[in-house]
Amino acid sequence: MVQQVNTGNQHCLELLCSLEGLSPEQVSFTWTRESEQLLHQNNPSSMSSTLTLCKPHWRDGDTFTCQASYSRNHTLYSKNITIKYTDEGKRVRAFTPESRPADEASE
Q: Is 26 helix (H, G, I), strand (E, B) or coil?
């Protein structure tokens, strides 16, 4: 699962990537944007990774990818999340492809 965590700051955002039901010691996370690997915080005990970005390190429309590698069976899980700045309310929203509202998914 990949989701945006509310930071209370419209210039910064925090993205959370997590897995459930696997052995924590055998999971490693990687965050990328357009093939560029990004620094992030891993929390092995909860099988999650947090990516915190403040402007100018993200732009409207950026897509970030969280990859979780499970070493036990060499499985790679991958999930994208796209950042969208909305003028109404001056909010930053993050969408995974399946959570994007229908009117924005067709853009």
A: helix
